[in-house]
Each structure stands twice: as structure tokens, then as C-alpha cells.
């Protein structure tokens, strides 16, 4: 079966550009260097940024083409990233309490049930006092047409994050409009949800 993301990443240009996402660019420098897991990381712009800050970065993505372009971008930046081909919609054994920071930037997958299972995996792989950073499009994004899925059930609501991470300390939460200029893929005023949540100490 053809991988939809292999096709999207097949051009020489980077679909979402080479610069990091603005939320990651703002938040990551506030956190101590550690082990980072970048989910649905595509062509690697955020993983490379994290590595340049001194983090030990593992990046997961389902697209072989995306992972190849991630390698090229890491080489350009002079950093190393551990890259793994992982389908987040399928159940896999995640390492327990292995990462200081886990982030998912526009890694829209499945429906709410699939995402709820993903959030539980994210929570258990995060170390105590570790951070989770998420930026996603809200369901309101359908009327903006500046990026993201075209299926409503793949878009997110504030409640799903606040419910999933209710036992974490919410350090930052945002729901509303932001401008995103990220290559051809995300371009213009968008309706976003942002979360920075910290896992309680044991």
C-alpha cells in the first residue's frame, strides 16, 4: 500500500520548511537538555532544532522518505538524531519513563479513540518531572484551510488534551488563532491548540 506521507514528502523542497515550529522554538529553550522523543516528526525540522540545543533526540515517523530527508537536514546542521520508522496508529511497546521531553507537532492521527491511546503511551514514556509539548489544529481549522487534515475527526478539541493530561501540571495552554508560516504545508492564520504539561514527580 502506498504511504500517503512518502508521496507528500517526495519533492526536494521541505514541505513544512527547515525552521522549527514556532511553539517548539519558544518552549524548548526553557527546558533542560535531556532525552527527547519527537513524534510524527516528518522531515525533521523540530528534531534537528532540539539536537542543536544539546538534546539527545529520538525521532519517530511512518514515512521512509521523511526519515531520509530528516537525515539530510541533520547532516546539514551537523547534528545526530536517532531515527525510527514507527506507525503511531498501531500498538507498539513504548519504553517506560525513558524521555525527559516528548513532543508532537501537528502529528494528527486517527480518531479520538486512537489519540486517547496515544496520549496514554506518551504519558507512560515520559519521565517524572518530564515535559510533554503538543501543538495541533483544532476542529475550527476546517474553516481556515491553511493546513492540516480535512477530516474533522482527525482534528482536536481542548477537552481531549485537558482530560488526557488532567493528572499532569499544565504549564501552558492555548486555544485560538496563531499565524503559521511553515513551508507550503502550513501557511497563514490557523486555529491551534497548544499544551505544555509536566509529569508529577514520583
TrEMBL record:
The keyword Transferase applies. Keywords: Methyltransferase, Transferase. Residues 36-130 form the Methyltransferase domain. GO terms for molecular function: methyltransferase activity. GO terms for biological process: methylation. Pfam families: Methyltransf_25 (PF13649). SUPFAM superfamilies: S-adenosyl-L-methionine-dependent methyltransferases. PANTHER family: PUTATIVE (AFU_ORTHOLOGUE AFUA_2G14390)-RELATED (PTHR43861:SF3), TRANS-ACONITATE 2-METHYLTRANSFERASE-RELATED (PTHR43861). This is Methyltransferase family protein.
